[in-house]
Design goal:
alpha/beta; FAD/NAD(P)-binding domain; Enolase-like, domain 1; 7-stranded mixed beta sheet; 5-stranded parallel beta sheet; 13 helices
Length: 448
């Protein structure tokens, strides 16, 4: 066997790359990882973790308003965006340090620079230094897509949203997916006038229709504007520094900030994939088999760069399975069925399994159970916002094939319920479970 500098060289220190590198090293492999920005990847540095912290901060707006109904006199409460922003970024620094420490503690060599694949077993660093490895793992993730419209450089993406100097008075968010709806909830709660512009007539494609409709209804009640079937045509700067955004089927709108939330594209540019002969698909994603191997036997890929399921826990599972299989002699593959997901909107959505439409397509008989209720807290504060839970079952066997919820703490509730769906439990199993009262979660065992 040829002698290499490393058994594994990982390009990209995000969730999938870090997990794969750490586990491979624990199996005794000699491992190196290259990261041109910061260890932790999109989720930790500029994605789900700092975003969730902003969501927490934004929820205080309603909580402070509701507090008076619970007997509290808050006084002249004030919000300081820069304080929240800086505290969030400081915690990102902390997490970056922890991820780096984890790799170092496992004996992984870290190169803080860009790496390019220059052969089936060769990597060239930005410094010009070359390294060889028996196995190369591509884990470079994805980045926000920016539409090619005139003036696109005047907008920002989710990457820059965490670094704003102030909450904009008026913000236009382009897109209808989870990133668009999450930031819409945050900025709206923190005082911005939010307009969502979506090229189709649907929000959150792939989620249960009843939940999507409920979120739209609640969002409009909260003051968020929506423009559907609208393609952005261009952005130009007004004399006063504001932005004029033109679009199809709608009048132009003046705003102070444009946030693109129009999807994410795999990071493959400049990686040397063409020179190495690594195949990519029509969407620019690295093509892999069910063992994460590319068409080049020594090169693998995990995470968002493969564009299979763009979720952090999936990237982690893929990295773990890859390392166990290749370096730990533990046959392991990722099961992509029944993956739970959440949208941290205001209120949040959570889902696992089939939607009603999907179940009708795949199953001969379907039974649907729902609970449409006002959470106890909302009742006391006289807020009419209602939660909705929906269970989809195989009509023949009673097996639960899908659970969907919108309401406070829905993601926390669905995580445990997803175990039951994954295990193939039935509606009768849910019905036989004693409720925890009074909770919102008890509705899952009281569905009619």
């Amino acid at each position: 066997m040829a002698e290499y500098d490393y058994d594994l060289f990982t390009i990209g220190a995000g969730s999938g790359g870090v997990r794969a590198s750490r586990v491979a090293a624990a199996h005794g492999a000699r491992v190196a990882i290259a990261e041109e920005y910061r260890v932790g990847g999109t989720c930790v540095i500029r994605g789900c973790v700092p975003k969730k912290m902003l969501v927490y901060g934004a929820h205080f707006a309603e909580d402070l308003e509701d507090a008076t109904r619970f007997g509290w006199e808050i006084g002249n409460a004030k919000f300081d965006w820069k304080r929240l922003r800086d505290n969030v970024l400081a915690d990102v620094d902390r997490l970056n340090g922890l991820y780096t420490q984890t790799l170092e503690n496992n004996g992984v060599d870290i190169f803080g620079e860009r790496a390019t694949i220059t052969g089936p077993h060769e990597i060239t660093l930005a410094s010009g230094e070359t390294k060889t490895a028996r196995i190369i793992l591509i884990a470079t993730g994805a980045r926000p897509h920016v539409p090619s419209i005139p003036g696109h450089d005047l907008g920002i993406t989710s990457n820059e949203a965490f670094h704003l100097d102030a909450i904009p008075d008026r913000i236009l968010i382009a897109g209808g997916g989870y990133i668009a709806n999450e930031f819409a909830g945050v900025f709206n709660a923190l005082g911005a006038k939010v307009t969502i512009v979506n090229r189709s007539d649907k929000l959150l494609r792939g989620y249960e229709e009843a939940l999507r409709d409920r979120l739209l209804q609640i969002s409009i009640t909260k003051g968020i504007d929506f423009r559907f079937n609208a393609d952005l045509r261009g952005i130009e700067k007004n004399p006063d520094g504001s932005l004029k955004v033109s679009m199809t089927n709608n009048d132009p709108i003046d705003v102070d900030c444009v946030l693109f939330a129009t999807g994410r594209v795999p990071n493959i540019e400049g990686l040397g994939l063409e020179a190495a002969g690594v195949e990519v698909n029509d969407h620019g994603a690295v093509t892999v088999d069910d063992e994460a191997r590319t068409n080049i036997a020594s090169i693998y890929a995990v995470g968002d760069v493969t564009n299979r399921v763009q979720l952090t826990p999936v990237a982690i599972r893929e990295g773990q399975a890859f390392a166990d299989r290749v370096f730990g002699d533990k046959p392991s593959k990722v099961d992509y069925s029944c993956i739970p997901a959440a949208v941290f909107s205001h209120p949040p959505i959570a889902s696992v399994g089939l939607t009603e439409a999907q179940a009708n397509e795949q199953l001969g008989s379907v039974a649907v159970y729902t609970s449409d209720f006002r959470p106890m807290k909302n009742a006391l504060v006289q807020r009419n916002e209602r939660a909705l839970y929906k269970m989809i079952c195989d009509g023949e066997t009673g097996r639960v094939v899908g659970l969907h919820a919108i309401g406070p703490e829905a993601p926390e509730i669905i995580q445990a319920a997803a175990i039951a769906v994954k295990a193939g439990l039935t509606k009768a199993d849910f019905d036989a479970t004693v409720a925890v009262h009074p909770t919102m979660a008890e509705e899952l065992v009281l569905l009619k």
